Amino acid sequence: MYNISSHINTDKIFIVKRSELEDRFDATFYKEGFDFLNFIRLSKIARVSGGKRLPEGYDFSNEPTNYRYLRVGDVNRDGTLNYGDFKYLPKDVYTILKRYEIFKNDLLIAIVGATVGKVALMNIETDENIILTENCAKITLKDKTVLPEYLFILLQSPLIQKQIQLNYIQTTLPKLGLDRVGSLYIPPIPSIKIQNEIVKVFSKAFNINKQKEAEAKAILESIDTYILKELGISLPEQNNTLQDRIFTAKFSEVVGGRLDPLFYNSDLSYFSSGVYESLAIGSLTISLKSGFGVGRQDQADEYDGIIQIRPTNIDEFGQLIFDRNIYVPRTLLDKVTPLEVGDVLFNNTNSQELVGKTALFAENKSMLYSNHITVIKVKKEKVLPEFLWMVLNSYQKHKVFYSLCTNWNNQSGIGLELLKSIKIPVPNIGTQKTIVNHVANIFNSANRLKEQAAEILFEAKQKVEQMLISK
């Protein structure tokens, strides 16, 4: 019998029998209270091996070859593979890395970085040879008593994903060891007949989910066309011929400034060619301020902390997402001003392609923001925050920031002064409201479809998990 002091929160206390302790002694691993009775280790049915990075001094091939390299970024969150994005390898590099090749029906799981636990099934029919990155593990089934499609579904289940979250090492970059992958507990393997039933249930829901998400994405992609039309902006058709990739700049425009050609080949001039006057962002805003960085050791857990918004919290259409959050101590609220409804969140530092993606803060809870986010507070009598958010995302989509940003150490960024100087077309407030309301209706329609898609997949995963546990 244990007596706990009255001032201690009992929701944060749990007890584990000594006999249940294995090779882990950290409390977070045991707090979920998993019951693994009769479960088996993944290593009993499959072999786990790692990938490999390119040898020092070698690079990808600029020309197509029969050899490819799969990176963790080529794996989508839904487990599909972007085969067309796989990098080509020279034959001599493939020869060096041949032992790290992957084959059809191998399963892949991300083991490094923010996407730890992301799973894919290698189901591509190809004559090309594919090498796996060191940031993924390869899982190869030992025999045909387990369907690869079944294991793919199993590894995505909450039952396994929670174990993965508790198993990876909490360093600057989360890392899941190959031994930890092999030691994951899985339910006893059911018959092939039952495996096929589970695959059928999940596949049907997955296909409906993808269809609805595709419909939602098509609706959202219409936003940019609508905005440009309303602003009277006509962008030139992209022509990738050599002649059209050559341009000139006067020496007087270059001397004393930047020399990178992308900076002088921006499409920004076309955005000033519409029917409305263009004004510098600095003249439309009250303030622009970047957030603060925190190391892993300074972060908090979900129960004691508050979300710090980072670039990964902004999706491709400028909506805030909260599927992978970083938390900081609540005590920081005494030192740092939290975000306010109507703040425009501009991603100032990222890979070159992603710099400039922007979100609008509309949450009814306290949140902070990282040093990779610049918060823009607008003069609402001149520009609506919703309108600025939409225009900045249109600029990002058309690679305006890609051209303007400064590059260093595999990162790119837009500084505060440069951001202030960028001009945007500014119609009157009435016209802005019309545009904002129309776009809001588009978002609402798309989000309804996405919610339906998520609900269908969630219900399927619940049904599958029940089937997994009960068999």
Automatic annotation (TrEMBL):
SUPFAM superfamilies: DNA methylase specificity domain (SSF116734). Residues 39-217, 349-452 form the Type I restriction modification DNA specificity domain. CDD domains: RMtype1_S_Cje2232P-TRD2-CR2_like (cd17526), RMtype1_S_EcoJA65PI-TRD1-CR1_like (cd17256). Keywords: DNA-binding, Restriction system. It comes from the Bacteria. Pfam families: Methylase_S. Belongs to the type-I restriction system S methylase family. This is Type I restriction modification DNA specificity domain-containing protein. It comes from Niastella koreensis.
